[in-house]
């Protein structure tokens, strides 16, 4: 609808509150906690590629962040270590690469914080049950054949 803002439904830069990176509903990182590095992008491009630093790397220090809770911090440290990095160099402008790098960082962080659903164990199938019992029977027969013969006179 025109005039209405769409609610944010995924990781990325939150358009309603400038200056933050919304990773999940429970994790919002201020952009001031991110560290930026730019270098010239590799590959073809002639003078523009050689003279402009368009490749962007964004770093997020998990250990020093005030935005991350203790459980989130332990998950991120377990998965990535103390620093999480994301890079982008495909676009021609540094600002576009900054945007792509931020989105990649948010996706990596959100993926690491997502907990896999618990496994629900299922009952063995009738065929599996039958195979298990048949193997037990074969093992028992093999052991019985190893015994010394009974001496009944």
Question: Globular, elongated, flat, extended or rod-shaped: what is the shape?
Answer: elongated
Note the beta-strand portion: 15-25%
Per DSSP, the total helix count is 4
Provide the succession of SSEs: EEEEHEHEHH
CATH class of the domain at 12-113: Alpha Beta
Biggest β-sheet: count, sense, barrel? 3 strands, antiparallel
CATH architecture of the domain at 12-113: 2-Layer Sandwich
Word description of this protein:
The model is unreliable at 1-8 (pLDDT under 50). The chain is α+β, with helices and mostly antiparallel strands. The protein has a domain at 12-113: Double Stranded RNA Binding Domain (2-Layer Sandwich). A three-stranded antiparallel sheet has the order 1-2-3. Strands 4-5-6 form a three-stranded antiparallel sheet. The chain has four helices and six strands; from the N terminus they run ββββαβαβαα.
Outline the fold blueprint.
Layout: E1 12-13, E2 20-24, E3 27-30, E4 34-39, H1 46-51, E5 55-61, H2 70-80, E6 83-88, H3 94-113, H4 126-146
Antiparallel strand pairs: 1-2, 2-3, 4-5, 5-6
């Amino acid at each position: 609808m025109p005039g209405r803002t769409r609610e944010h439904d995924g990781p990325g830069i939150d358009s309603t509150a400038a200056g933050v990176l919304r990773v999940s509903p429970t994790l919002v990182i201020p952009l001031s906690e991110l560290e930026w590095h730019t270098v010239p992008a590799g590959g073809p491009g002639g003078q523009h590629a050689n003279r402009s630093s368009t490749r962007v790397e964004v770093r997020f220090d998990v250990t020093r962040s005030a935005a991350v809770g203790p459980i989130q911090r332990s998950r991120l440290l377990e998965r990535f270590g103390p620093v999480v990095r994301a890079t982008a160099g495909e676009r021609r402008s540094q600002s576009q690469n900054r945007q792509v790098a931020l989105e990649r960082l948010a996706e990596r962080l959100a993926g690491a914080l997502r907990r896999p659903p618990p496994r629900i164990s299922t009952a063995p199938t009738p065929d599996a049950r039958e195979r298990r019992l048949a193997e037990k029977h074969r093992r028992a027969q093999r052991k019985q054949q190893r015994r010394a013969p009974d001496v009944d006179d």
